[in-house]
Amino acid sequence: MEDVLELTRKLGREPNIDTALHIMQWELGDLAKATVYTKWHPDLANAYKGEAKKALSDLIFQVYVVAALLNQSPDSLLNFGIGTVKDRIKEKESKVGRFQSYIGNGDK
After folding, report:
1. Cβ neighbours of 71 (radius 10 Å)
2. Angle in degrees, 0-180, between the axes of helices 74-94 and 45-69, rounded to the nearest 10
3. DSSP sequence for the chain
4. Phi, psi values for residue 49, rounded to 5°
5. How far apart are the first and last CA of the chain?
6. What is the pLDDT confidence band of residue 101, given thresholds at 50, 70 and 90?
7. pTM
8. Do residues 51 and 29 make contact, with C-beta atoms less than 8 angstroms apart?
């Protein structure tokens, strides 16, 4: 895999978390816009799906940049996140903590 920090340097920027987070916000906004516009303009759906793909790929790139800056492996972070979701599922199924009185659309 390419070194995301080195690629960022080749763009003329020293990698840093502040800039990566700003770019992530922009890309998340582009992803949201493209997703909504796909529904609003179905005749242009393919073009907006392409924009969504680009925004998501750029967002993932920045996640890798932040992970590298924090000396974390993206795979280990993903596994940690999966574990967190599994713990929440157990809490929800047991109706404990924040899920004690939870009524969500997945409970129908």
Report:
1. 6
2. 100
3. ---HHHHHHHTT----HHHHHHHHHHHHHHHHHHHHHHHH-GGGHHHHHHHHHHHHHHHHHHHHHHHHHTT--HHHHHHHHHHHHHHHHHHHHHT-GGGTT---GGG-
4. -65, -35
5. 43
6. confident
7. 0.84
8. no
Nearby residues of 95 by Cβ (< 8 Å), 6 or more positions away = 101, 102
Q: Rounded distance, CA 97 to CA 103, Å?
A: 13
Pair of tokens at residue 102:
């939870």
The amino acid at 104: G
Angle between helices 45-69 and 17-40 (to 10 degrees): 160
- Among the listed residues 9, 11, 17, the one whose alpha carbon sits nearest the alpha carbon of residue 64: 17
